[in-house]
Structure formats: structure tokens, C-alpha cells
Design a protein that fits this description.
The chain has twelve helices and no strands. It has about 260 residues and is mainly alpha-helical. The longest helix is centred in the last third of the chain and has 24 residues, at about 215-240. The mean pLDDT is about 95.
Length: about 260
Amino acid sequence: MNAVGGPPLRAGGLRDGLRLGAGTFTVAPVRAGVVDRDAARVAMVSAPAYGLVIGALVAAIAIGLRASQAPGLVTAVVCVGIATLATRGLHLDGLADTVDALGSYADRERALAIMRSPEVGPFGVVAIAFAVLVPVATIASMLDRPWWALLTSTAIGYASGRLGVTWACRVGVLAARSDGLGALVAGTVQPAEAVLASLAIGALAVAAVPHRPWQGPVAVVASLAATAIVTVHVRRRLGGITGDTLGACVEIGTAVAMIGVAW
């Protein structure tokens, strides 16, 4: 298989990459294949697709609960809870670790040690609250939209955060450590692949907001801008990305996109 703008993948790389992506971005009990840079490349390029699936699941639950006349806030809380379970809370943990590390103002080695710690500090707690409450508030505010708009806006919100991960793993981005997820995926994505993924998500986002086709794509761009700022700051502080910083990109990008489509 020839990937866009880059070297061809090894035989089986696509299959192994999709398995790695499912294991990284969802709770799906997939059997692990070969885990290497080729698989990492596929997993990071396909990251937004897993966000679309999770977002569509959330929207389907919201539509069903709305039809049963469940209270809006209860519906939103249930939806976000299921979305969190669908990812094992892995990205929330990465967000908390990243915020604690960056908020410590410690040097590089100390900040990386804070990221490895299982403890969650006050910065991390606030960050988790933000990442949970924003989707709850935005989903609750969108429940009066037509079903197709609710489906699209929610799917785009969750996909946009994963799209930030695709860009964070592009060629030229280094890993902060020589081990871990960051070392596996950093620098694997070709720029053309990230551009194509962005265009696909942006095109889908046109249907996110009724009567305002421009708002969805603008929300995607705002989400990418937010995750780009996070990535640049992390690279300056730590010298590269880690698995935790990718989790932070997911949660921050999702929150910004959800605000954008709900406004």
C-alpha cells in the first residue's frame, strides 16, 4: 500500500495500524498486531475516524433519550459518561498529567517525572472538570436540533480532538522520551495525510449547524489551533510529545470543537 505523500507501508501495516488505533482510541477488545512505526502511522492518521464513531454513538444515545423525553441535562451527562467509558478515560488521564506537569513550572526532567506519577494534582482536577463539563453543557444545548444536525455536530466534536493528534504526530515532531507511546508515534504522519484528514472532517462539519454551514468548519479550525498551541508549548518545555500530551490534545480539541458547533 502507498500512503499519501510518504513511503509505502509494509504488508499488513494497514491492518495492524487499525488494530492499534482501536486499542488506543477506544475500549474495543481488539487483538494486538505488530506494533511498529508503520502501524503507528496508520493509527494516528485514522484517529479522527475513531472520534467520528464515538461521537456518532453519543449522538445516537442522545437522540434515543430525547425521544423518551429524558431531561436534557441527564441525557448529556449519560452521553459524556458513555463517551468516557468508550475510551477508558485514557485521554482524561493524559490531560491531567500534562496540565500538572506544565503547571508545575519545573524543569524538563522533573516535569516528565510528574507526568509519570499516578497522582493527580489540583491543576489536573480542574482540567478534568473542564473536559467533562464542556461536552455536557454543549450536548445539552444542542438537543433541540434536528437529529441529523445533532449527529453531525457531536461526531465532528469528538473527531476534531483526534484530528489534533494526527497533526501532533506529523513528520518533524520529536518525542520527549525514548520510550512510551510518544516515541512510537512521533513523526510518523505525513503532512499530506494530515491535510487530507482535515479536509474530510471539515467537509463533514458543513452539516453540523443548521443554516450556518460555515460554523462547523470554523469549529474544526479553532480546535486545530488550540491543539497546535498545546503541541508547540509542550515541545518547547519538554523537547517533544508524549502519550499524555496526545491525550491532552484529544480533550482540549474536543472541548473547543464542541463549543464551536454549539455556539
